[in-house]
Structures are given as C-alpha cells and as structure tokens.
Design brief:
two-component regulatory system; DNA-binding; Response regulator in two-component regulatory system (BfmR/bfmS); CheY-like_superfamily; alpha/beta; 5-stranded parallel β-sheet
Length: about 230
C-alpha cells in the first residue's frame, strides 16, 4: 500500500521542520507550506490525504484554509491550535485537533486513527443504509437527503455512519470516541457534542427537535430506527 501523503502547514519553521522530520521517519510522504498561499499551491500539486494545519497563519486563518481545502476534496484535516476550545476548527470541518504544545507520538497516533477510518470503509465495501429520506453510501462516503447531496466533513460522515449502522443502540460519548476516533481520546468529550450538532444542522428538519439522532439523557446518543418506519 502506498504511503499516505501529508501536507504540513505552519508558519513556525521550527514546528514545521520538526513535524516534517518526524512524520517522514514514520514512512509518510510529507510536504510543507508556511502560509495560506503556498499551502493552496502545494495542496493542488501534492494532493495530500491529510493536512496538518495550524490555526494561525500570516496571510489567512486555518479555519478559512480548512473550508477552502475541503470545498475542493474530501481531504482529512488535523488542526494545530493553541486554543482550548475545539469548536473553532471542528465547526469548519476539521476531523480532529491537537493543542500546542503537543507530543509527536500523540500527533502520529491521531493521524493513524484518521487514516484508518478511510481504509476500513474502502476495504469492507458495506451496503448503503436507507432511513426514510436519508441515504448513507459508505463506499462513496456520501449522504443524500431527499435525493440531494449533503456536504459532511470526513469525521462527520464517520460519526453518522457509526450511529446509523446500529440504529437503536445508545452510545456513550466515550464509546463513540473510541469507535470513531479509534483511540483513547484524552480531550474533553464535548468534541462529540460539537460534531453531533453540526450533523443535525445538515440532516435534521429541525435541529432543535432531532428525529434521526436522539440525545439519550445521562448516556449519549442514538440513531432512531423508528425514523424509517414513520416515513
């Protein structure tokens, strides 16, 4: 299997070079950029599988760059941030975040977890899931609502698919973190709530009164199998 291609975008040369050297030693194919302009040029030429993206750049923001990159491809985004609030990057489609200062082994662990989700879905070739007006195609990694394509980030897709393939099961946040992120997540579990909120805005007729993804008080979340029966 070919090595995954990772683009590292950070204006700090020390951090950029450190990540570059470390990931290259892990057998990834790595390229780097120091600002938004060069990042987009490298993005088009290099065609990365994943972008390690700093939140603060000299000519733009990581949030704007994340939106632009994911409007072009379904690339995975791992955000580097000094902020404690994960909502900043996650609401723009980032798949995960690492807070500076960070451990290189942790960074690699999270990269592996993100890339593994893509390999698993491609290898297993699962069937489409259909619930009323909602269709989930795990092979093409696409969601359709009433026949219209819904734009989800890679992690939003994986989280929705995890819930929908086992309708009626109540998932604890810790279980979703382990299942979707594929490692023991050491950050705050509210990262799940942020992504669930974003998914609801995109697929629910009324995000304040969700019919697909129900909140189970004191537990977590459940995909409601009865949604299909009612429609």
């Amino acid at each position: 299997m070919a090595s995954a291609k990772i683009l590292v975008v950070d204006d700090d040369p020390a951090i950029r070079n450190l990540i570059n050297r470390y990931l290259s030693q892990q057998d990834y194919e790595v390229d780097t950029a120091h600002d938004g302009h060069s990042a987009l040029e490298k993005f088009e030429q290099f065609k990365p599988d994943l972008v390690v993206l700093d939140l603060n750049l000299p000519d733009t923001t990581g949030l704007a760059l994340c939106r632009e990159m994911q409007s072009r491809t379904s690339v995975f985004i791992l955000m580097l941030t000094s902020e404690k609030d994960p909502k900043l990057g996650l609401k723009e489609g980032a798949d995960d975040f690492v807070t500076k200062p960070f451990d290189l082994e942790e960074l690699n662990l999270r990269i592996k977890a993100i890339l593994k989700r893509q390999r698993t879905l491609v290898d297993t070739q699962p069937q489409n899931l259909v619930y009323g007006d909602l269709t989930i195609d795990p092979n093409r990694r696409e969601i359709y609502l009433r026949g219209e394509l819904v734009a989800l980030s890679a992690l939003e897709f994986d989280l929705l698919y995890c819930l929908a393939r086992k309708p009626g099961r109540a998932w604890r946040r810790s279980e979703l973190l382990q299942e979707v992120w594929d490692y023991e997540y050491e950050g705050e579990q509210r990262v799940v709530d942020v992504h669930i909120g974003q998914i609801r805005k995109k697929i629910e007729p009324d995000a304040d009164k969700p019919s697909f993804i129900k909140t189970i008080r004191g537990v977590g979340y459940m995909f409601d199998r009865r949604t299909n029966e009612r429609q």
